[in-house]
Amino acid sequence: MNTAVNRIKELLGPEIAGPGLAFVAVMLFFSLASPQFLSSATFGSVAFQLPELGLLTLAMLLPVLTGGLNLAITFTANLAGLTVAWVLQANGGVDAGMASFILGCILAIAVGAATGVVMGLVIAYTRAHPILVSLSMMIFVRGLGEFLTRGGDISGFPAFLQPIGHGSLAGIPIPLLIFIVCVLVWHVLLTRLKLGFNTYMIGSNIDAARYSGVNTRKVLVLVYTLSGAMSAVAGIIMLARFNSVRVGHGESYLLITVLACFLGGVNPFGGFGRVIPVFVALVVLQLLSSGLNLMGANQHLATAVWGILLIAVMILRWFAAQLMIFNRRKG
Fold this sequence. Notes:
two-stranded antiparallel sheet
């Protein structure tokens, strides 16, 4: 029994405490405030809305763990979605076959990975700040997408895409299944693979990692490449969800991905954080949004509450750090 408990603690880590308490608080508050909150409709809505934000958060997570950021994730996702759309349109539009869709997905992931490679190379070899590099890439990708689409959308896709965005398998939404698989892949990468260990080392102290024999340039390029590839996966899901694609889809998700990372216990300066607590934090944010909608609040208020929540998390972290310092001095 103790072995099982210890394994669960090792899997979740101490970072789960914050999002876990937030989950309990949100569930209690909205279940009392709205009788419709604890319903299959609410949880079904959360299950379908969670994956697109969740995949973008996974794309943000790896750069944050190295002490950086990828501000280009949403526009990379849209450019990847546009890539799939162009391949489908070139092969018959609504009459395009599955082979065209698979080819489009491969090219989309390649496009997403390419944006990450460029950012990783610039960051690794010039030591330019990740915010400036990713901001430049964001501007470039956005401008390129708007130039190619003339600011409009692309729609008219085959019917077999509908289940990918709105279908279920054994009662579980297909987008959610894809997201869970990606969460597990990221968890294994960060806890079982050398790349994950080196990612934490770079986030803790990049100079110490370099002196320890870690090829920091290679790791940074791989981290941003994987971030771009995950953004592309999010773009494919968004295309299937909306049945259209344009440059501005999901633009508001960018800052929320950063909030989800910090709420999930990720150190904003890098080197510390796990995937599972971030997953729980994402669930909390979606439940908060759904609860506010049930109470008649609009999405703008939900966004404002998310911002206040981020400020509250930073204040609570400061108090927790001060309490730890006090206990050490007392001991």
